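Our preliminary data section would be incomplete without showing what the modeling component actually yields. Below, a chain of 251 amino acids is followed by its predicted structure, encoded as tokens that our downstream tools consume directly.
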Amino acid sequence: MLRIALCDDNPAQCSLLCQMMKDFAQQRPQLAVKLSVFSSPWELLVAEEETPFHICLLDVVMPELSGIQLGSKLRDLGSRAAIIYLTVSPEYALDSYEVEAFHYLIKPVGPARLFSVLDKAVQSLEKRRAACITVKTRAGLSLAPLDQIVYVELSGRTARYHLSGGACLESVTLRGSFQEETVPLLAHARFFPCGASFVVNLFYVTAVEKKFLLLDGGRQVPLPRGLAAQARQRWSDFWLDSPGAPAPFPD
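Predicted structure:
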């Protein structure tokens, strides 16, 4: 299901956008769109904490909280939604980049223009989802973006996924082996197995030493005896195959 939030304090504009969104959903039944409408930014933030949205359509000029401020607070909550701003003025366009907005539309916006941007947002979300793995945790299923996984380690009978930014996802008790758990990662050239208990994202490696890999932030992952040369070659090949590029994964 595609969860879309619409926040606009102008009743007339909100009604018009709601009708367009209903038309969008009817023309694309495969998306199973669920639209949630808010006249207050604070109500949207509460809803986001309960169940994150995939796309947020935000008015820029609102009395309680501007759309730019709302976008910033959504990002603070960890939202990775595609934010699309709707406003009568282009003066806030540069500010929208601060919250990594997906698009900025000038009102009045017609169905064709709005639908085109929404379709592009959906395509972007689908690419992002394809560049994730699903981790089964005690709290439920979590999506871990491949480009945010720094390394994975075997901890007892669970796998711990260490993410950039410091977050960690811990799997439920593994039924199979750690090697079986990490097969989806090792299908990508950026991931390197360090013995039987670690898989490392080569993008985050800063040095290959004789006994360990040094990662961003000073973290170390041990290297089994005799694996340093292979690790150094894989690390070199990774950067030579994609010079200056962070990864072969879409944003």
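The chain has a mean pLDDT of 89. The chain has eight helices and 15 strands. Preliminary results of this kind motivate Aim 1 of the renewal.
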